Amino acid sequence: MSKKRARIRFTWLAIVVLIGILLAVCPFNIPFTTYRYNGFANSISLGLDLSGGVSVVYDCTPAKNSNSSDITNAIDATCERLEQVLYNEGYSEASVRRQSGNRIRIEVPNVTDSSEVFSFLEDPKTLHMTLVECTDPDNPPEDFVNGFDIDSVNVSMQEDKYGVSVKFTSEGATKFANLTEQAANGEKKIYIYLGDINANNLFGQVTCESKITGGSTFISGDSMSDYDSAKEYAYNIMSGTFQVELTLIENSVISATLGKNALTYGIIAGAVALVIVMLIMWLRYGDFGLLANFALIVYAVLMLFFLQAIPFIQLTLPGIAGIILSLGMAVDGNVIIFERIKEEYAKGKKIHLAVKSGFKRAFWPIFDSNITTIITSIVLYILGTASIKGFALTLLLGILLSMFTTLVVTRFFVKSYLPLNSTNPRKLRLHREKGVVEIKEDETEKVEDNAIPFTALETPENVTGGENND
Predict the structure, then answer these.
(1) pLDDT reading at 277 higher than 80
(2) What is the C-alpha separation between 189 and 175, in angstroms, rounded?
(3) DSSP-assigned letter for residue 186
(4) What is the DSSP string of 82-135?
(5) Among 200, 183, 198, which residue's Cα sits nearest to residue 144?
(6) Which residues are paired to 155 by β-bridges?
(7) For 46, which DSSP code?
(8) How many angstroms separate the Cα of 61 from the Cα of each of 104, 150, 303?
(9) What are phi and psi of 38, to 5 degrees?
(10) What element of type H or E holds 62?
(11) CA–CA separation, 188 vs 175, rounded Å?
């Protein structure tokens, strides 16, 4: 690549990065429209500690006909169900935890009205399946399958009809198989009730022709005409699977004043630290350091983009910690690369050969260290609480982006830079000891990574290995 083409490439790269920075931090009105673009940074969903939210506390009592005789296990199971429902609804940072006594506290960030989140708890509908239609509310028929036999409920569509797919527990699957077998053999209908078993809550009746052993079923009806109505039924049915009855005893709105101050100070501290790191990189590695700083800017723009683009990420203070940690990994990766390049140049290789060998030698140390961190992030996300999951998500995203910017973007920048300077080591803070002979390009394959560099030898007797020492 010629110097002219290299300068043109860097000009275009600078323009692209500048546009990325503007899109990330600068809101503006879109010309000839009524829309306003807010920028990546302003569109990031914030967690409870940064944006405020709602906090509710429920008192728990054993549910009627619950399968669990232990209130502790029943509350724990209900917490898991609540967290699953809230996560599916998009509240990935919602915190559901048990308090002292038989209480559950739920905190949902970036929400000011608790009713929009917990409306499905106001009218829980336990699902019941019977073989006899209820004609006397005071003497309801026995149910074969009820809400406590349900494992999960999801909105789905079959034959262009919205409905809910119900998956049963292992015990519930056995009950459902026995129910369908009896219905098929006795030519009976299965009556489905949502809520208490009475005529007003009859949802539908179906005829079963054979035993169903799949452990799941699809329920639809005229009342599920669209996605929203089906989702409402799904959540109402899911709330009817809780092993406890929930009674609201506290509902409060949490202020984000402390979080906003922490976010402001964190941004200031991060900006100062980033400037100091960039200055150190330039002083230590010269033009290579400037290229690394350029790659760090690309990393920051991509991070802001994905934070606002991925719907289930909400930024919290632990999440900010994950971003800072991944930023440190990105800087560390560039340091490893440039130190390897300096070592290769000190052995006698030319600049472009030292760069090639430096990236090659640095790949596996960077890859191994990042892979271990990625595995740790995945384990934290699977086993951690909501706040730990926020840290794990941003750390995982940051590590993936740091690997990309370090191994791809930085390498691309350095490769584009070499036509502009591949002979002046001072601008790259490269040096080698006096007496080290520069290795020719065709000799590089003969030199081991840990070999002692060739020195200027005046007589062939000083070189061992035979008469022919070419």
Answers:
(1) yes
(2) 16
(3) T
(4) HHHHHHHTT-TT-EEEEETTTEEEEEEET-S-THHHHGGGTS---EEEESS---
(5) 183
(6) 164
(7) B
(8) 11, 20, 45
(9) -95, -15
(10) strand 53-62
(11) 16
Q: State how far the Cα of 341 lies from the Cα of 347, in Å rounded to an integer.
A: 10
- Dist. CA 403–CA 397, nearest whole Å: 10
- Of the ranges 61-70, 235-244, 346-355, which is most confident? 346-355
Distance CA 376, CA 329 (A): 14
More confident residue, 292 or 423: 292
* Residue 454: pLDDT over 50: no
Q: Using DSSP, state whether 21 is helix, strand or coil.
A: helix
Query: In the chain, what is the greatest distance between 2 CA atoms, to the nearest angstrom?
Result: 114
- Please check whether residue 107 is in contact with residue 95, taking contact to mean a CB–CB distance below 8 angstroms: yes
Asked whether the predicted pLDDT for residue 444 surpasses 70, the reply is no
139-143, 169-173, 330-334, 453-457: least confident range: 453-457
Strand 53-62 and strand 244-254: the pairing is: antiparallel
Which candidate, 266, 321, 322, 333, places its Cα nearest to that of 295?
333
* Helix and strand element counts for the chain (H, E): 12, 13
Which residues have a Cβ under 8 Å from the Cβ of 16 and sit 6 or more positions away? Answer: none
Question: What are the pLDDT digits (tens) for 286-336?
Answer: 999 999 999 999 999 999 999 988 877 878 888 888 888 888 888 999 999
- Both tokens assigned to 357: 């060998």
333 Cβ neighbours under 8 A, 6+ residues apart: 362, 366, 370, 402, 403, 406, 407, 410
Residue ranges and CATH numbers for the domains of the chain are 3-33+256-428 (1.20.1640.10), 51-254 (3.30.1360.200)
**What residues does 58 pair with on adjacent strands?**
104, 248
pTM above 0.85, yes or no: no
Residue 425 near residue 353 (C-beta atoms within 8 A): no
Beta strands in 389-454 (DSSP E): none
- Cα-based torsion angle of the residue sequence 154, 156, 162, 163 in order, rounded to the nearest 10 degrees: -40
Q: CA nearest 50: which of 266, 324, 250?
A: 266
Among 467, 66, 448, 53, residue whose Cα is nearest residue 259: 53
Q: Could you tell me if 107 and 48 are in contact, meaning their C-beta atoms sit under 8 angstroms apart?
A: yes
